[in-house]
Amino acid sequence: MNIKKFKYYLRIWWHLNVKNILPVFNHNPTIIVFLIGKIIRFTFFGGFIYFLLKGTNTLAGYSLNQTLFFFLTFNLIDIIGQFLFREVYRFRPQIISGTFDFILTKPMSPLFRVLLGGADATDLITIPPLVILVWYIGNLLNPSGLAIFYYVILVLNGLVISAAFHILVLAMGIITLEIDHTVMIYRDLVGLGRFPIDIYKEPLRSLITFIVPIGLMISIPAKAFMGLINPIGVISSVLFGMALFMLSLQFWKYALKKYTSASS
Amino acid sequence: MFQIILTYFLWNSVFADTNTEVFGYNREKILTYVFGIIIIRALVFSARSVDIPGEIADGKLSNYLIRPINYFKYWLTRDLSSKALNLAFSISEFIILAIILKPPLFFQSNLLYILLFLIILLLANYLIFVIRMIVSFVTFWMPELAWGAQFIFMMIITEFLSGAVFPLDIFPDTWQKTINLTPFPYLVFFPLQVYLGQITIVESMQGIMVALFWSLILSIIMKKIWLSGLKIYSSEGR
After folding, report:
1. Residues of A whose CB is below 8 A from B143
2. How far apart are the C-alpha atoms of A85 and B106, rounded to whole Å?
């Protein structure tokens, strides 16, 4: 993708999302309620980890701050993923009603529109304090400059994996007309990354590391930050993420060919 | 199911050493707590009355008001049928997970504890019904918050404070005492405490009295809110 095209899509994204966010807050008190709900849930889980580790001292060999860092990294990737890819949750009606046809006729990638075309306004508010929390707890772990670099790369890789998952969900939606349950399964699976994957036993641990790469998406970045992943591990994770992303794009292209526009 | 798997492995990891005792639990009891959540969640939290806020907001409530039925008994009956259906599924889930994970489970042999457990389960089901009704009736005044209020109270606050996500014992004593004064722990945490014999018979009876007290108070509040709500209900959309 060249710079001109990138700017073109950035401009579309801005128009589709950011410009719509403030009016949403002005006219929809439900969003405020959902925002409060998300904050309460985050606080409850954070409190649970704090009190649990106060009682046990370690969890699978990790200290309180390390466990909190895993939890925060999970939230960071999950919330940014939800912020960016919320439109996926609204895809099914478009397929059922056939309004997806209108998207196909527009001069832009239909995948871009249905993947990134409807950012979640509530998450725009939760992301900045979350980044500050990650920074604060991360600082307590005394990371090296290289570990921070690895972390940033692997968090981005986690978002690429998250994008790949969402593209797979969209593609399956076209073929099966089912989105909601697939997304719920994805969200439940990702939820397994709230804690370090070391708590899981084999073969589940390998399954959620390599087959459904929740571990690569969430646990590996946090481990790299703690200096527990070597450069080969970092490179392998990035290559895996890219391969999964390419695979999801191929699946999307395949699914798009199966779209019949039956309801329109 | 993934939530249970996460909780199971989390506690399994904490109690990796079989002799460990944390927060008053041994490995057998904490894993029974996790597995108990499967059944009790299905029994207590499943309900058809989650549809009430939407029906108030879009005026469908009128359909019930003109019928010769008691609105509360109607929804209580529908909730019971939903619980029966979900209980069947949860038992299957319980069996499948028990076969796969092979947890050491605690079986209560004291009949008195089992009797008290069944009594508190009945109360828990009534309490959640009343709480859900009260939260649903917020829609009379704020129809745009029909789902928002349910999300905050039923899916977050109630779930966490009931002990459906983790046992409330992990909190400091003062926090526990404060939470115990609310109706929430009597939905999941307290029934499991009774089943596991974590508290004495006297403490179990005291807890049942508190749950009864809340059932009574909340029933009165529910009726008052219902009557006030009906006065401002305008059947919009009909």
Report:
1. none
2. 44
